[in-house]
């Protein structure tokens, strides 16, 4: 046996010391969750626990689609704003200036 491992006598002695300590002080209390720590299940967890997997999937898909629509609206608004700015520069300063200025900021 390796020198790093305790012998059987040492392990027996340590176990006897542990048992004596437990008899003298009592067992080590385990951590229990208090009412404050216990969180009620979320609505999604309740649905999944009830077996409503497809409803959960549909809700997540609808939320993702709504987020995509919002992202697309923002992108469309930004493109429209850039087009409006380019047209304003073109009308006021000329097409070469508008192209040069938009190229340097884009």
What does this entry look like structurally?
The chain is 73% helix and 0% strand. It is an all-alpha fold and 106 residues long. Helix 3 packs across helix 4 (95-105). The radius of gyration is 35 Å and the shape is elongated.
Provide the fold topology.
Elements lengths: L7 H18 L17 H7 L3 H41 L1 H11 L1
Helix pairs in contact: 3-4
**Count of DSSP H/I helices:** 4
Distance between the termini: 72 Å
Roughly what is the average pLDDT, rounded to an integer? 85
Strand content: under 5%
Series of H and E elements: HHHH
The proportion of residues forming helix, as a percent range, comes to: over 70%
What structural category characterises the helix and strand content?
mainly alpha
In the predicted model, the low-confidence regions spanning at least 5 consecutive residues are none
Largest sheet: none
- Rg for CA atoms: 35 Å
Question: What is this structure, in a nutshell?
Answer:
It is built from 4 helices and no strands. The chain has 106 residues and is mostly helical.
Features:
elongated; 106 residues; mainly alpha; 4 helices; single chain; 73% helix
């Amino acid at each position: 046996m390796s020198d790093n491992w305790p012998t059987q006598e040492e392990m027996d002695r340590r176990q006897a010391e542990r048992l004596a300590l437990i008899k003298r002080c009592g067992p080590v209390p385990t951590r229990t969750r208090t009412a404050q720590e216990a969180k009620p299940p979320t609505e999604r967890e309740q649905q999944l626990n009830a077996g409503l997997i497809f409803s959960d999937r549909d809700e997540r898909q609808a939320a993702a689609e709504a987020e995509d629509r919002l992202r697309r609206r923002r992108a469309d608004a930004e493109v429209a704003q850039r087009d409006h700015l380019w047209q304003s520069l073109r009308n006021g300063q000329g097409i070469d200036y508008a192209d040069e200025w938009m190229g340097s900021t884009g």
